[in-house]
Design brief:
It is a single chain. 89% of the residues lie in helices and 0% in strands. By secondary structure, it is mainly alpha-helical. It has one domain.
Length: 47
């Protein structure tokens, strides 16, 4: 999971240049992606 966040941070630095709304969007997207991944992993575990 840490790697995903690291990539997001690097992308964020390149794209956003520190603007607040963009930071919020990146965090929101990252959170969403991690949630999707963990629910996918849960489903796979249940199978």
């Amino acid at each position: 999971m840490g790697l995903i966040w690291w990539e997001l941070l690097r992308l964020h630095r390149r794209l956003c240049n520190g603007t607040y709304i963009c930071t919020f969007l990146v965090v929101y997207l990252g959170y969403f992606c991690v949630n999707q991944l963990s629910s996918t992993v849960l489903v796979i575990d249940l199978l």
